[in-house]
């Protein structure tokens, strides 16, 4: 089931010749601008949300996050997708990013990240091929371990690095305030 607004799917669609495809994103993080006009809940909410995003696309941020457990076998997939999204294609390449009048260049910000929980016995080292493939992603590479210089950032870093504009204060303080405000609902 697709729960990504159509305008964002259109913006991230790659067309090669007549073939259209999207990345196999595991998670799409959307940061809406302040005072975004969210539609009322209802049967056509996703369509109404997509229409509102289309109007405010230049102020919307999108982060695509690839989540994989096997870093060695899967690191080249996010590397190649990020390269495509960051590239500028001339008329002779037959490659286009976006469709139906929308493209990632119209977004306020776009990032592509890789998140892993390494399952191999020996952890990747700086300079290893899996690290080289993911260490320059526009959104960075992260793992479920503490930050290791030259290898990967701790997953907790993804929020500040890519989605910091969604928080009025530090990420930790924002989460703490949200928990406190919801705690009253359960007492």
Description:
31% of the residues lie in helices and 19% in strands. It has 187 residues and is of the alpha/beta class. It has one domain (6-161). The strands form 2 sheets. Strands 3-4-6-7-8 form a 5-stranded mixed β-sheet, sandwiched between helices. Strand 6 (109-116), helix 5 and strand 7 form a beta-alpha-beta unit. The longest helix is centred in the last third of the chain and has 13 residues, at 171-183. The mean pLDDT is 89.
Q: Class by helix and strand content? A: alpha/beta
User: Helicity range of the residues?
Assistant: 25-40%
Distance between the termini: 35 Å
Please state the CA-atom Rg, rounded to the nearest Å. Answer: 18 Å
Low-confidence stretches: none
Beta fraction of the residues? 15-25%
Mean pLDDT across all amino acids: 89
User: So how many helices?
Assistant: 7
Shape: flat
Number of strands: 8
Characterize the largest beta sheet: strand count, sense, and whether it forms a barrel: 5 strands, mixed
Total individual domains: 1
Tell me the series of helices and strands, N- to C-terminal. Answer: HEEEHEHHEEHEEHH
Order of adjacent strands in the largest pleated sheet: 3-4-6-7-8
């Amino acid at each position: 089931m697709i729960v990504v607004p159509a305008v964002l799917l259109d913006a991230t669609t790659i067309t090669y010749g007549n073939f259209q495809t999207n990345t196999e994103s595991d998670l799409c993080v959307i940061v809406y601008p302040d005072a975004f006009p969210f539609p009322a809940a209802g049967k056509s909410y996703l369509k109404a949300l997509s229409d509102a995003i289309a109007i405010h696309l230049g102020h919307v941020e999108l982060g695509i996050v690839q989540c994989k457990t096997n870093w060695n076998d899967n690191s080249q997939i996010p590397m190649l997708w990020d390269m495509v999204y960051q590239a500028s294609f001339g008329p002779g390449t037959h490659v286009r990013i976006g469709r139906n009048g929308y493209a990632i260049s119209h977004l306020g910000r776009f990032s592509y990240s890789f998140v892993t929980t390494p399952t191999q016995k020996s952890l990747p080292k700086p300079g290893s091929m899996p690290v080289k493939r993911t260490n320059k992603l526009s959104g960075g590479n992260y793992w479920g371990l503490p930050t290791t210089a030259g290898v990967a950032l701790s997953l907790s870093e993804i929020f500040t690095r890519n989605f910091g504009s969604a928080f009025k204060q530090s990420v930790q303080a924002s989460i703490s305030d949200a928990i406190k405000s919801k705690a009253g609902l359960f007492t």
